[in-house]
């Protein structure tokens, strides 16, 4: 049994991730903290440090925290780009940077990207661009991690549990069960893979 | 003959790009403005707007402007990440966003990424991550551009002309002649391709 911190645990992907963690001790955190063990702001390194120090020993961190703004490229504002770059890209890199000082030997980080970088969608340019950045980051930074620590990304399509929210803007996409995304997170936590992007698509 | 604006024209890649533009009218710009027709700061949309208004009619914009900071991931500071994200990613997206209001019908944008996202290198994590973002951005935003406007990225390995600077940190990489990178930019300007990443590697 490993201790796994799930950041963004109250979101649909966080909930899906936890479907794969039944064999582990799960600690939950989110931006609002509602219904979670901890409150954390991934864009603030001090907030991340406080989370990791409060938890103590842990073996894995799962990030399901990747806030994106959606708009046509021509109307994306600087604020929307900044919110997406900070929320989806910088915030997740912060988790790894700060987490490295606290995670156990042989631990793992699993980040979240999203299918829009390989299946582009109208109004999805910021999500796509930052998902491409996360997939690249994971593949490249894996070589730098010390102490047997691993890093991977889960790149899911839309999940059935979120179809009522996103379905209308995603014609032609086949939603997958959240439990299948949970399997991908589980494999990242429990296997030996590193530097991989696990696509979950139908 | 097309009018082509080369941003970052005084750098090694900008010089390489211009080797492919002998048949065109070339307008040069760079951050310092030294030896160029114009001075421009790609992180400042007003500066870009002023450049495009000063030039008047143009058919293509080439960006060879992608400042990156190099360090091991564990020692990358927030300032280094921010400088790279602004310089290599946001600045180039700004060129497209602002340029769209000024470029001729059927015009083209060609951005610069770099081989480190597919051939990772120690201390290259910020360059790699933002290059992955640029490659993704180009592939996805191409579908959104109006008026027959195209967009591509050139993703080169190190060029011979820069080998004295980067060679020591890049054992096992084969530099290519800048003229070959110039060919890639020329093809992006003169062909009909869009949403493509042109790798120039050996």
Automatic annotation (TrEMBL), chains A, B:
Coiled coil: none annotated. It comes from the Bacteria. Signal peptide: none annotated. One of its GO terms (molecular function) is oxidoreductase activity. Keywords: Oxidoreductase. The keyword RNA-binding does not apply. It holds the Pfam family adh_short_C2. The keyword Thylakoid does not apply. Belongs to the short-chain dehydrogenases/reductases (SDR) family. This is Short chain dehydrogenase. It comes from Pandoraea aquatica. The lineage of its organism: Bacteria, Pseudomonadati, Pseudomonadota, Betaproteobacteria, Burkholderiales.
């Amino acid at each position: 049994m490993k201790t796994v911190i799930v950041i963004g645990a109250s979101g649909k992907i966080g909930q899906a991730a936890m479907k794969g963690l039944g064999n582990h001790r799960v600690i939950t955190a989110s931006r609002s903290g509602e219904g979670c063990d901890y409150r954390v702001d991934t864009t603030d390194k001090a907030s991340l440090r406080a989370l990791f120090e409060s938890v103590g020993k842990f073996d894995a961190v799962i990030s399901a925290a990747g806030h994106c703004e959606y708009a046509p490229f021509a109307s994306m504002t600087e604020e929307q780009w900044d919110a997406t770059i900070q929320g989806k890209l910088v915030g997740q890199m912060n988790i790894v940077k700060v987490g490295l000082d606290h995670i156990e030997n042989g631990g793992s980080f699993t980040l979240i990207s999203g299918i829009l970088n390989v299946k582009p969608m109208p109004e999805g340019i910021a999500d796509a661009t930052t998902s491409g950045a996360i997939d690249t980051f994971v593949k490249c930074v894996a070589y730098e991690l010390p102490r047997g620590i691993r890093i991977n990304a889960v790149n899911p399509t839309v999940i059935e549990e979120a179809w009522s929210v996103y379905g209308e803007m995603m014609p032609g996409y086949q939603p997958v069960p959240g439990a299948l995304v949970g399997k991908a997170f589980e494999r990242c936590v429990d296997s030996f893979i590193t530097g991989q992007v696990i696509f979950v698509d139908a």
